[in-house]
Amino acid sequence: MLFHGYRPDVITFTSLIDGYCRAGKLSQGLKLWQEMNAKNVSPSAYTFSVLINALCKENRLQEAHGFCKAGNVDEANLIVAEMEEKRCSPDKVTFTILILGNCMKGRMSEAISNFKRMLAIGCAPDNITVDSLISCLMKAGMPNQAHHIKTIAYKDLNLGMSPSQRADHLRGNAKITVAV
Questions:
Q1: pLDDT in tens, 45-66
Q2: Which of 3-12, 27-36, 56-65, 92-101 has the highest mean pLDDT?
Q3: How many CB atoms lie within 10 A of CB 105?
Q4: Residues sharing a CB contact under 8 Å with residue 55, sequence separation 6 or more, in sequence order
Q5: H-state helical runs in the chain
Q6: Pairwise CA distance, residues 56 & 65, whole Å
Q7: N or C: fewer beta carbons within 10 Å in the chain?
């Protein structure tokens, strides 16, 4: 590519990073990330999403958390909106990262909104998602919202329903009021 006078852009780098990550070669993907930064090629929200997802799959949650802090949470929110427009539902990991990213930025309303969207599409949160959100809401002085989320999540997650029944039930409980 360079031989022919073409410089790699964000799409090229992201495609290569994604390929390495999908092939289980995360270290190669991270090297390309460093090269991308060294060449002053700005990553897209999708670039962050690819790396965060790969780090989470490798159970390297601290590093994923770091990428979320380094990344632009607004762009991450936009990428999820794009995913939903293309009928590609975000998964539990994606929602958890968004929820925590918004909490870290002090955006509790957006964190709750992401939690509501998670429920609305039938994506069941796990204890990590729920407990983290509740903890953040308590620290932000929002005990009523924390209690409401705890009630909904633990009631709905322990109903003993099949996954499809639970998904339908979760969609019905996506209406969480937020005091602003």
A1: 678 778 877 877 777 766 766 6
A2: 27-36
A3: 15
A4: 26, 61, 63, 64, 67
A5: 10-22, 26-38, 45-57, 61-70, 73-85, 92-104, 108-120, 127-139, 143-157, 163-172
A6: 9
A7: C
Q: Say what the pLDDT of residue 161 is.
A: 47
Which of 151, 146, 140 is CA-nearest to residue 107?
A: 140
What are the residue boundaries of the structural domains of the chain, listed by start?
7-71, 95-180
How does pLDDT run across 130-168, given as a tens digit for each residue? Answer: 888 999 999 999 999 999 998 888 776 653 345 565 556
Which amino acid is it at 23?
Answer: A
Cα–Cα distance, 37 to 123 (Å, whole number): 34
**DSSP state, residue 105:** T
- Highest averaged pLDDT of the listed ranges 8-22, 39-53, 109-123: 8-22
Q: Rounded to an integer, what distance in angstroms lies between the CA atom of residue 99 and that of residue 78?
A: 13
